[in-house]
Amino acid sequence: MSWPFWHFLAIYASLILGMTFGLVFWSRYLRKVYYKKALSQKIKISNPLQVAYLKNGLRGYIRTILFKLIRQNYLEVPRKGWKGYRIKSKAGHPSIKLLSKEEQTVYHYAVSQGNWEKVINYKELHEDLRLVAEDADSQLTNYSLLYPQSIINRLNQIRAFFMLIVLSLGAYRYFGGIKLKAHSWSLLAVGLVGMMLILHLARLNRVTKQGRMYLMTLKKRYDKPKSSINDQHQLVKVSLLKDNKQAMQVIQRLLKEQAKKDEVRETQVRPKMRSNLGLVTSSNARLET
Length: 289
What we know:
Elements (H helix, E strand, L loop, with lengths): L4 H35 L8 H24 L7 E3 L2 E3 L14 H13 L2 H6 L1 H6 L1 H13 L6 H27 L5 H20 L8 H14 L8 H9 L6 H31 L13
Antiparallel strand pairs: 1-2
Helix pairs in contact: 1-7, 1-8, 2-3, 2-6, 2-10, 7-8
């Protein structure tokens, strides 16, 4: 290039800023469009598995089913081992035929793999649940809680194209001849900063603004203490957990709390059953002679 280095650098930086602002403008426009679209619809999601998929995708969906299988006595409570949390089938569990097709699939993989994280991340299981994922994507996209995958892919393609332009122009100028070492570092710094801006700014997450607000509303509602927490309540709490290591700690705590409540319930039910069977005698009762 015949341009002086600092002239080229100014044009180079201006081009990077222009591409970055274009991406930011387009992503904000998409957020506004889908937010307005979501406000015009009534959200009809009552299934904890849909909430789990909205929050964490297929991993959250599988994790919630595993928790459900434990609560329904198909699987034992996970025990921590040196390779992570171990899971196995519970003796005397109910019939597998009572489960849905998706629950049966997760159950069989859980028994065969025997490890909590392996089951959640198992590629073959994800492939078997592909139709479930596509159906959930379609429903949540129709409610404007998820961005269409085609929109996200298009934005990523444009971002990759812009990064290629930045890299190509920088490489062309660098190999075209730079006299001073300071020029090399300046060109490298502008190019790296530009690619970082294009890579990290204007990124669309899979969940829309309305989707995030809906999840926050559910979290506030289900975080409130209740006198009686049923299975549905616990399933929603599990579906709203973040996809991290602390999730298992919360799941273990919920299972322990439920186990204690079950024990208390049994101690309350047994005396009533004995009384109904005539096995308990009143302290005021007299023996007949």
